[in-house]
Amino acid sequence: MSRTGIKCCINPSILSADFVNLQAELARISNADAVHVDVMDNHFVPNLTIGLPVVERIAQVSPVPLDAHLMIAEVDRWAPLYADAGLDSVTFHVEASNAPIKLARELRARGAKAGMALRPATAVEPYLDMLPELDMLLIMTVEPGFGGQAFLDITLPKIRRARAAIEGSGVNVALQVDGGITEETITRAAEAGANIFVAGSAVYGKPSPQEAIESLRAKGQLAFG
Ligand SMILES: O=C(CO)[C@@H](O)[C@H](O)COP(=O)(O)O
Ligand SMILES: [Fe+2]
């Protein structure tokens, strides 16, 4: 699917960074489009990372905008507080929200872009009417919870359908993919319609994260046609 003129964005996930040296790790990705911060609570996903106080501090020192991916229960209560921390975008899982439309509106009202995430097994069709309420749709390409997993090709048709719906409705919604993005899989995800790529191990696992970002961006952009 040709997307001439659309920028291919690379958002490195700090889940694969050295948590003891976060400020230095952020400086290593200063050419990224945003930094992706994975918040996990050991309830919505079986893993625990960082919470609001640490995310607030990262936002203060980050050289690039902050993109929070909330993998937490009770997200209707928590997500607005992340928006208040001055983040560029706050993404909640629809499976964890009791009122996704209300929540997306609240995030925007508090000055953050509103992102909504779907687990690999969650269908996109029930939520297509919600597109005008969103700035970003995140299609998980691994089961949320851990970095370093293999890309799930089974998610590609969903990415294609989401891209077609976005184009069909004429809304300005970014399509993000997260999990297992590498120099190889980014081409498939980009061809299917994604335009923001989260990459943890494929950036921080390389000797030069900056070069890894440039290389991934070039591959994704090429696949846009
Ligand atoms: O949200 C998640 C995992 O739940 C991701 O953001 C991962 O952190 C991406 O890591 P890689 O698959 O790129 O190593
Ligand atoms: Fe993530």
From TrEMBL:
Task: Indicate whether tRNA-binding appears among the record's keywords.
Answer: no
Q: Which GO terms describe its molecular function?
A: D-ribulose-phosphate 3-epimerase activity; metal ion binding
Q: Which keywords does UniProt give here?
A: Carbohydrate metabolism, Cobalt, Isomerase, Manganese, Metal-binding, Zinc
Q: Which domain of life is it from?
A: Bacteria
In this chain, a divalent metal cation is annotated as bound at H36, D38, H69, D178
Give binding positions for substrate: S13, H69, G145, F146, G147, G148, D178, G179, G180, G200, S201
Record note on cofactor: Binds 1 divalent metal cation per subunit.
Instruction: List the cofactors.
Output: a divalent metal cation; Fe(2+); Mn(2+); Zn(2+)
- Cite the active-site annotation: D38 (proton acceptor), D178 (proton donor)
InterPro entries recorded for this chain? Answer: Aldolase_TIM, Ribul_P_3_epim, Ribul_P_3_epim-like, RibuloseP-bd_barrel
The catalysed reaction is: D-ribulose 5-phosphate = D-xylulose 5-phosphate
Q: What's a GO biological-process term for it?
A: pentose catabolic process
Q: Name one GO cellular component term.
A: cytoplasm
Q: What is its EC number?
A: 5.1.3.1
What is its pathway?
Answer: Carbohydrate degradation
Q: Which NCBIfam families match?
A: PRK05581.1-4, rpe
The job of this chain, per UniProt, is described as: Catalyzes the reversible epimerization of D-ribulose 5-phosphate to D-xylulose 5-phosphate.
Q: Please give the family membership noted in the entry.
A: Belongs to the ribulose-phosphate 3-epimerase family.
Q: What is this protein called?
A: Ribulose-phosphate 3-epimerase
Which organism does this sequence originate in?
Arthrobacter psychrochitiniphilus
